[in-house]
Hints:
The protein has 139 residues and is mostly helical. It has helices spanning 5-44, 50-73, 78-99, 110-132.
Amino acid sequence: MTVNSGIDDTRISVRWIQISFFIAAVLFNLCLAIQVLSVGLAYFYNSDWWNLHIWLVRGYSGLSLILLVWVFLIPFPRKVQSLTASIPVLLGLQFLTIHLKTSFPLAAFHPLIGFSLFSISTTLVHRTSHIVFPNHNQN
């Protein structure tokens, strides 16, 4: 008779939820990479790529909010929570720098914030991979 089956089931379900979070974080990171590629293609090759750039941000912005809720529902370290919480903030700043018209050109900060967003997203993937696959990362 197994007494700990409920505890084992909980560990397994938490682990699968963490793996799912990791997959979503990787997907978000890939969307960012494709978005950076699409803006480069739009600027240097063909302006039609700009539509993909806009479409991507509208599509994956919602994923940042899902990750934000997700990271606080399942036990993750505070660093992972902070990284995840900063993503929607940076996306909001991205939106403001493009759409807010002021005497100072805020759009100049748009690529810098984008770089920060990509860096934080990549760090989130890296940190989460160490949590989800601890033995794999020790090599």
